[in-house]
Amino acid sequence: MLRTHTTKEASMLDGESVRVCGWVHDIRVLGRIAFLVLRDRYGFAQLTLIRSLLGKDKFKEYTKITRESVICATGKVQKTEQAKLGFEILPEIIEVLNPADAPLPLGVSDMVTADMETRIENRFLDLRKPEVMAVFKVRSALLQGIREVLVANGFLEVHTPKIVATATEGGTELFPLKYFEKDAYLNQSPQLYKQILMAAGFDRVFEIAPAFRAEEHNTTRHLNEFISIDAELSFANDEDAMSILEKSIVGGIKRVIDKESEALEQLNVKLSIPELPFRRVTYDEALNLVNKHISMEWGEDFSTEALKVLGEEIGGFYFITRWPLDIKPFYVLPDEDGYSFAFDLMYRDKELSSGAQRNHRYESLVEIMRSKGLNPENFNFYLRAFKYGMPPHAGWGLGLERLVMIVTGVKNIRECVIFPRDRTRLVP
Ligand code: ATP
Ligand code: MG
Fold it and tell me: What CATH number should be reported for the domain whose range is 7-98?
């Protein structure tokens, strides 16, 4: 067996012999004794090297191992007050499985924070930093918690095509590609397909998959490839959709608190379970709040400054409901007087999710498409599903990385993706 225990498992023993494997995080030589800190995903172990026990040659060899080399150490675990970790391993043998070159292009144990570009260029090293890896532990638990809530509520997990012939939102922000002799695009959202599944009688579906947006602007909250968590449910209205969305988020956060308390500590965040239900604020109420500080007309979307005001005035998680129809996509259900059944889920000034009760009536859908300058002919595959029995339905799309940002407190969305795709980055 290459490894008998992880560092965490070893930390719970006293007197047993173990073989632990990992990376050389740090090595300090103090004359006849040396401390080698070994790191794996689960934590650290201090290997205490004593010259008189190891012999001169081994001591010399082991203290020369370069930082970040991959090693396995065999030895006895012992509890000790002296070690910061509360235990140490007295190795008899250390094997270098793969030596690391020096100097390192990016220090792993250093406190110095490199700029984002250097970090991404050397992502495999950057990710070795426990506080960087912690983001992905949180992300995994969050996703798992959300999935559990959806499954427990009767949602079927589905996958829809990412190579498509038409734009979901009808316009720009599309990555074109060649599909043999046809033109195709990378899908911006599974919106149209998940709605078709409502016509298919799937009743409740969710999808967790990449979405692609050719956003030209480089911001700290936009990526060109992100993970969209989408849900759609039949015989349901906007309130039903909001209710499952807020439950999913709470389920995700609960799981993070349950399973990843150490990661949260490494990230220096105190996470608490948000209270349900989240506050619902209508677009008109939000507009009034904004107008106390800056001027904004009815029918406009909230600007960055306006969202800052809302973030300050409302705070935490909240929904903005009853949006003007004109600033929402064609598929949302219209209400009277130019309103709609669309909603956005916000956290302070950040949009996390957009959703709505959908327009399930063919004639009205076609009319709204035309009024938005879209050609219904191009959406035939979608519109057909509305002619032969489409139930009323509602749903939402939630950006996973936006939620990870909020839960981990990181300021740049790139930190929430292992290999981010932005305006200039395609490698690694
Ligand atoms: P924004 O106004 O913040 O650009 P949007 O309204 O264009 O977002 P939607 O089409 O409503 O986005 O997509 C649903 C959700 O997907 C958003 O609320 C957000 O969480 C996420 N999302 C959308 N675009 C991006 C992106 N470029 N990068 C990361 N997440 C995104
Ligand atoms: Mg939106």
Answer: 2.40.50.140
In the chain, CATH 2.40.50.140 covers 7-98
* Whether the Cβ atoms of residue 283 and residue 310 lie closer than 8 Å to each other: no
- Ligand closest to Cα of 211 equals 1
Q: Is the CB of 351 under 6 A from ligand 1?
A: yes
Nearest CA to ligand 1 atom 18: 353
How much is the mean pLDDT over the chain? 96
β-pairing, 156-157 vs 70-79, is: unpaired
CATH architecture assignment, domain 126-416:
2-Layer Sandwich (3.30)
- What pLDDT is attached to residue 171? 63
On the question of pLDDT at 172 being above 80, the answer is: no
Contact 77, 92 (CB under 8 A): no
Residues in the chain: 428
Residue 179: predicted pLDDT: 97
| Close Cβ partners of 427 (under 8 Å, ≥ 6 residues apart) | none
With cut-offs at 50, 70 and 90, classify the pLDDT of residue 111. confident
d(CA 325, CA 239): 17
Cα 267 from Cα 396, distance rounded (Å): 29
pLDDT at position 1:
75
Instruction: Give the pLDDT confidence of 337-394 residue by residue, as tens digits.
Output: 999 999 999 999 999 999 999 999 999 999 999 999 999 998 999 999 999 999 999 9
CA–centroid distance, residue 353 to ligand 2 (Å) = 6
Q: Give which of 146, 144, 174 is closest to 162, Cα–Cα.
A: 174
pLDDT digits (tens, 9 = 90+) for 144-154: 999 999 999 99
List the shell of residues around ion ligand 2, using CB closer than 5 Å. Answer: 354
Is 160's pLDDT higher than 90? Answer: yes
| Residue 98, both tokens | 């793969």
- Is the shortest distance between the CB of 128 and ligand 1 below 6 Å? no
List strands edge to edge, sheet with 350-357.
Answer: 156-157, 204-212, 225-234, 393-399, 350-357, 342-347, 317-321, 279-282
Q: Is the CB–ligand 1 distance for residue 91 below 6 Å?
A: no
pLDDT of residue 217: 83
Atom 26 of ligand 1 has which residue's CA nearest to it? 222
Q: Ligand 1 pocket test: which of 174, 191, 222 has the largest number of ligand atoms within 8 Å of its C-beta? A: 222
Q: In which residue ranges of the chain is CATH 3.30.930.10 found?
A: 126-416
Q: How far is CA 356 from CA 25, 205, 339, 422, in A?
A: 49, 15, 12, 28
